[in-house]
Amino acid sequence: MTSGPIGKCARAASAALLLVLGTGAAQAAAAPFTQLMALLAARRSGTVTFVARTYAAGLTRPLVSSGMLRFRAPDHLEQRTLKPAPSELILNGEHMTVRRDGETHQLNLRAYPDIAVYVDALRETLGGHGRALRRLFAIGWHGTLAHWQLTLRPIQAGARVRQIRLAGAGANIQRIEILAPRGARTVLRLSRPCAP
Predict the structure, then answer these.
(1) For residues 122 and 140, what is the distance between their CA atoms, to the nearest angstrom?
(2) What element of type H or E holds 171?
(3) What percent of the residues of the chain are helix, what percent strand, and what percent coil, each to the nearest 5?
(4) Which domain, by its residues, includes 52?
(5) Which residues contact 86 (CB under 8 A, 6 or more apart)?
(6) Which of 45, 99, 151, 190 is deepest in the core (most CB within 10 A)?
(7) Domain containing 179 — which CATH number?
(8) Residue 76 CB: number of other CB atoms within 10 A?
(9) Is the omega angle on the peptide bond into residue 74 within 30 degrees of 0, that is, cis?
């Protein structure tokens, strides 16, 4: 074992090297997330089709629905369900419009925290707002920019949505999974973006 001034210098250099390597690894992990946010921020609008499957206790098979999602920066989001029954959820900022069975309801998004968590995750990701995502969620990143997965866990206490997982390739989100209590979950598979 090395002791004395040379040993102390060697230990200090080793500690500094470990610190630099650790910082480099953290920066390397953050770089693809930052690049993804920049790619998404550059896309100001988009439309995709979706197929959603909801799994819950008591269901012998998943509930399946399909339709279209549309985003327009900075905060317009539409979910138009076509099957099994037509409905619309349209969001502009905090203002939410729900159309179903010939009725229209005007609501405040914040009055529905479970919907708000999903909307925040989707809008802030689509908008490329990394800072907002960090403020609202604990973020896990896996993969590379070519094939990635974000895991978003709500920071706010009492959120019923446990986590939201988004997966994609480059600026294309391909899959969204929403995990709720007692094993309930919804999985949306998204098409490639089409013209708005």
Answers:
(1) 15
(2) none
(3) 35, 40, 25
(4) 31-190
(5) 80, 100
(6) 190
(7) 2.50.20.10
(8) 14
(9) yes
